[in-house]
Amino acid sequence: MTSSQLKKLFDKNIDATVREHTNFIVQTYLDAGYEIYLVGGPVRDLLVGLSPKDIDFTSNCPLEKTKEMFDHVIPTGEEHGTLTIHIDGENYEVTRYRTDVDTDGRKATIAYSETFEEDAERRDLTVNAIGFNPITGEIKDPTGGMKDFEDKKIRFVGNALDRIREDELRALRYMRFIVKLD
Fold first, then answer.
1. pLDDT given at position 40
2. Residue 56's beta-bridge partner residues?
3. CA–CA distance, 151 with 20 (Å, rounded to integer)
4. What is the pLDDT of residue 105?
5. What is the pLDDT, as a whole number, of residue 130?
6. So what's the pLDDT on residue 170?
């Protein structure tokens, strides 16, 4: 799938208000000199032609800067690098690029990273490690998630057993996405 095809799915499958908010958030980060991508569920849902229920982003922007750039920011998971931007009754999660330092099967100790590629390596499935910027049209796909999607393959990033040991819920997410893809 090309970036223009993904952009068409974004324009078609995302509610106009949510699309406006999403573009505002993305443009705000870009104007401040940061990278930002839709990642995980929203990209995956767009690929299968669904309207995403949640809009999640990943960025290289420090959390303190995100708090300065937006009027209403909720520290929903700040210890894990996640803030929620609240606009007109809608919530949008932004998580700082990160790596997992240590995991216990459900919770991780994290460290911030500087690149999307490092962030993608800690994700569960290759299709959840695709980044898409709806303004620039850029797609980041360091783990081959687009090819896997086109080939109708669901693969873990790296070693599947390692990914499941890091977070046991990943096994359920794997099964849930197989059902969605089918």
1. 92
2. 93
3. 32
4. 55
5. 97
6. 84
Are residues 163 and 124 in contact, defined by beta-carbon separation less than 8 angstroms?
A: yes
How far is Cα of residue 146 from the mean position of the Cα atoms in its chain?
14
Give the 3-state DSSP-derived string for the chain, with helices as H, strands as E and coil as C.
CCHHHHHHHHHHHCCHHHHHHHHHHHHHHHHCCCCEEEECHHHHHHHCCCCCCCCEEEECCCHHHHHHHCCCEEEEEHHHCEEEEEECCEEEEEEECEEEEEECECCEEEEECCCHHHHHCCCCEHHHHCEECCCCCCEECCCCHHHHHHCCCCCECCCHHHHHHHECHHHHHHHHHHHHHC
Residues whose CB is less than 8 angstroms from the CB of residue 71 and which lie 6 or more positions away in sequence, other chains included:
none
Residues of the chain with pLDDT under 50: none
Structure tokens at 160: 């599947």
